[in-house]
Design brief:
There is one protein chain. This protein is an all-alpha fold and 123 residues long. It has one domain. The protein contains 8 helices and no strands. The longest helix is centred in the C-terminal third of the chain and has 18 residues. It is globular. The mean pLDDT is 83.
Length: 123
C-alpha cells in the first residue's frame, strides 16, 4: 500500500491541505491508512486508530504514527471527492500489477429455496 500511494497523484490533496491546528499528518499517511483499512475490511475511523496501536501492517502504513479517529474522519469528509478519484487510480494500478481482476457483478431480487428452516436460521 505504501508503494501504491507513492505512485498516486496527490496534488489535489496538497492544494487543499492546511497544516494548522493540532499535530499535522502527511496526506500520504492518512490516505494509506484509509485505503489499507478499506482493503482489509476495517472501515471505521475508530477501528483504524486502534489498529495503528495493535496491528503491525497498520503501524507500517502509518509510519509508527497514531492519528486519532477525529483526524481520520475529518480527512475523509474534507477530501471525499479527491479520495474517490484516488481510489480509482489505486484500483487501476492494482489491475495493471495483476493483483486485481475487474468485472461485472449483478445483484437481483431472485428468491432461491434453501434447505435450512426459518427457525434454525434465526436462532
Amino acid at each position: 500500500m505504501v508503494d501504491v500511494i507513492s505512485q498516486l497523484d496527490l496534488s489535489a490533496l496538497y492544494t487543499r491541505h492546511a497544516p494548522h491546528g493540532g499535530e499535522a499528518f502527511a496526506p500520504e499517511i492518512l490516505l494509506g491508512l484509509l485505503f489499507y483499512g478499506y482493503a482489509t475490511g476495517v472501515l471505521s475511523s475508530r477501528k483504524i486508530e486502534n489498529a495503528t496501536d495493535k496491528s503491525l501492517p497498520f503501524r507500517l502504513v502509518a509510519g509508527n504514527l497514531h492519528p486519532d479517529q477525529d483526524t481520520l474522519a475529518h480527512f475523509r469528509k474534507t477530501f471525499l471527492s479527491e479520495l474517490q478519484e484516488l481510489f480509482v487510480q489505486n484500483l487501476l494500478l492494482a489491475q495493471t500489477a495483476g493483483v486485481l481482476k475487474l468485472g461485472n457483478i449483478s445483484l437481483d431480487a431472485t428468491k432461491i429455496h434453501a434447505d435450512a428452516s426459518k427457525s434454525h436460521a434465526v436462532s
